[in-house]
Amino acid sequence: MSVSNSSRLLTTAIAAALLVMTVGDANAQRANDRRARAEAAKATAEEPANLFPGATRQEPTLAASQRIGPRLNKLSDAQQAGDVAAAQVIADEILANEKANAYERAITMRLMADLYLDTDAERSKDYLRKAIELNGLKNNDHYGSMVTLAQLQLQDDDYAGALATLDRLIAETKTTDPTYQVIRGNSLYRLERFDEAIAALKPVVEGNPEARPDWVQLLMASYAESGRSEEAARLAEEIAAKAPGDKRAQLNLANIYLQSDDIPRALEVYERLRKAGELTEERDYRNLMALYLNSEGKEREAAAVITEGLDKQILKPDHQTYNALAQAYYFSEQYDESIKAYQKAAPLAPDGETWLNLAKVLANEGRSAESKDAAQKALDKGIKRPDEARALLKR
């Protein structure tokens, strides 16, 4: 009687998920835009560079009036100081003034959108939409508002909204800035429109020495999800080769290999990280032990990995760990060690199945009295096939 094969495969999923660009990457750009808008609100004489030279939109000629301008300056000061209460009072006064023109209203909306950017995304998005609708800002701020709105929509999982905003921006400005194509590609990726994401990302990534690593990773993820595993692996290998000390890049490469069912190469990556001392998290060791346990004839290696993880106190000494260790020892014919691991796992189990496996291994080793004791504990704790435990009790 042997340990059930159905318990051999671990339920632990491979956690080396692809990491793609998030809207947090744009925080520095937001801060710069925020300062530029504040200066614009103060009506400085210096004209900023045209960020959207291909825009077909006619820039409004409106400016801050002598009546409203001082209020805008105070609003800008409150916004820069992060004084929400003061800024809100001033903004409400400006917006309630019937003589405020479209520019004054729009720049007020824009400043308030920035103020709420990190604390109230919904309010920030509402201000941004109204600022865009007023159509009173210069192109830099008008289209910059669209970019920020798209980033917030992406952050809030409104991928269709982000895509619509970016499509409008690109259509109206004819911009070729790769940053916007990447945000657009990210939206398409999240919508699982992988071929379209590839079409958006490939021109700004491949052959571009200035392409950021997260752009490349996003394209790699799009290739992988669309079933183009060879192209995904090529990119993953390029990233890993350029950054041998980047654990994330190496795990992404392993994950690409796994998606292609190339477990041996995935194991090579994990073993390189292990030898370099880079496997420092519990999920790292669980992923590696799962790979070995699901590879034919690699149970001895699995046992070594689990033991090492326990010794380093990276793996928790819980039922899952000891049960996996017991299985690794059992299927590598190290039965005494398997029994010891099962004896640690069984008391921690939620049911009696581990006690039953222990009873089977003990019976196979001729340790009848211990087997019967384990079989009874399996019955007491509850198992799916009680007849198996009863058969052991009758031996």
* Overall outline: elongated
Overall pLDDT metric = 87
Q: Which parts are unreliable, with pLDDT below 50 for 5 consecutive residues or more?
A: 4-29, 35-45
Largest sheet: none
CATH superfamily of the largest domain: Tetratricopeptide repeat domain
Q: If you consult CATH, what is the topology of the largest domain?
A: Serine Threonine Protein Phosphatase 5, Tetratricopeptide repeat
* N to C succession of SSEs: HHHHHHHHHHHHHHHHHHHH
**Helix content range of the residues, please?**
55-70%
Cα-based radius of gyration, to the nearest Å: 30 Å
Estimate what percentage of residues fall within beta strands.
Answer: under 5%
CATH class type of the largest domain: Mainly Alpha
The DSSP helix count reads 20
CATH architecture of the largest domain: Alpha Horseshoe
Terminal residue distance? 12 Å
| Oligomeric state of shown chains | single chain
Q: How many domains would you count in the coordinates?
A: 3
User: Structural class from helices and strands?
Assistant: mainly alpha
Number of strands: 0
Task: List the defining traits of the structure above.
single chain; 395 residues; mainly alpha; Serine Threonine Protein Phosphatase 5, Tetratricopeptide repeat; 3 domains; 20 helices; 0% strand; elongated
Written account of the structure:
The chain is an all-alpha fold and 395 residues long. The protein has three domains: 42-175, Serine Threonine Protein Phosphatase 5, Tetratricopeptide repeat, CATH 1.25.40; 192-278, Serine Threonine Protein Phosphatase 5, Tetratricopeptide repeat, CATH 1.25.40; 280-395, Tetratricopeptide repeat domain (Serine Threonine Protein Phosphatase 5, Tetratricopeptide repeat). Helices cover 66% and strands 0% of the residues. The protein has 20 helices and no strands. It has helices at 27-41, 69-81, 84-96, 102-115, 121-134, 139-155, 159-173, 178-190, 194-205, 213-225, 229-242, 247-259, 263-275, 282-293, 299-311, 319-331, 335-345, 353-364, 368-381, 386-393. It starts with 26 loop residues before the first helix and ends with a helix. Residues 4-29 and 35-45 have low confidence and may be disordered.
